Amino acid sequence: xxxxxxxxxxxxxxxxxxxxxxxxxxxxxxxxxxxxxxxxxxxxxxxxxxxxxxxxxxxxxxxxxxxxxxxxxxxxxxxxxxxxxxxxxxxxxxxxxxxxxxxxxxxxxxxxxxxxxxxxxxxxxxxxxxxxxxxxxxxxxxxxxxxxxxxxxxxxxxxxxxxxxxxxxxxxxxxxxxxxxxxxxxxxxxxxxxxxxxxxxxxxxxxxxxxxxxxxxxxxxxxxxxxxxxxxxxxxxxxxxxxxxxxxxxxxxxxxxxxxxxxxxxxxxxxxxxxxxxxxxxxxx
Length: 285
Ligand SMILES: Cc1cc2nc3c(=O)[nH]c(=O)nc-3n(C[C@H](O)[C@H](O)[C@H](O)COP(=O)(O)OP(=O)(O)OC[C@H]3O[C@@H](n4cnc5c(N)ncnc54)[C@H](O)[C@@H]3O)c2cc1C
Hints:
The chain contains seven helices and 17 strands. By secondary structure, it is α/β, with parallel strands linked by helices. Strands 1, 2, 3, 4, 5, 6 and 17 form a seven-stranded mixed beta sheet that branches.
């Protein structure tokens, strides 16, 4: 079990990992991308102290190298679900469950825009997790809608269970080359329950097809979907000055914890979150 799991791969997460290691915590950073996050889109930052005119990519590279040197572990994948049981947090990452005594959320501010119908049917025919729900669709027809490459792996997993898998894209990525998976063209517009009350249609600008189950994969998930019950402040996670959230041993930092959306603020908050987690874990011990 880790002392600390840090979710996100941007400046807040990397700063948090550095301080966590300096405080002697065993920690891992769970990042859904490897240096290609939001900051990587910036060609030049002029207001990060000590590194004038640095590109976002370079800044992330240096941060990550420093965190690795200090002994932080890195896990590539997306945290899909968090659950607290007495004494620990369990984090579902891809198809694995990781355990930690404390968790820091550093997921940035990007909010996935859900498809019409998606939220309402989540858990009743629509799923975001092949591992969790794939078994329900053994021998049945499944539609996969994906905004990134992880959807390919998920579709292949589902193809081992389902009688048929169709694959739709929400954003450009390498598509599955697998004869068990049919690529469907057209822009996905909405999800609609069929008149039988069971099957769900994926509606595109070129037509519609119905499935027993629909799986949607994106590189990020909204905080209140990741951790049902967490207190929000508008679109952001509510935190106090110690970066503590409304739930015990759960902290948030960087863009996901509110404005201003700036690297220097993200880095400072990552530092505070690590120190707060370390203090609270020490008190518990
Ligand atoms: C074009 C552009 C220019 C900018 N210029 C500046 C500037 O000049 N100065 C400045 O200070 N700021 C600038 N910013 C803002 C700056 O990039 C952000 O404030 C900063 O990156 C926030 O860091 P963060 O770690 O909180 O989040 P992010 O950098 O957004 O990192 C979050 C990471 O978490 C990952 N993630 C999300 N959900 C999950 C999940 N469930 N599981 C695993 N990983 C997940 C994401 O893939 C992402 O990599 C700019 C931003 C952009 C887009």
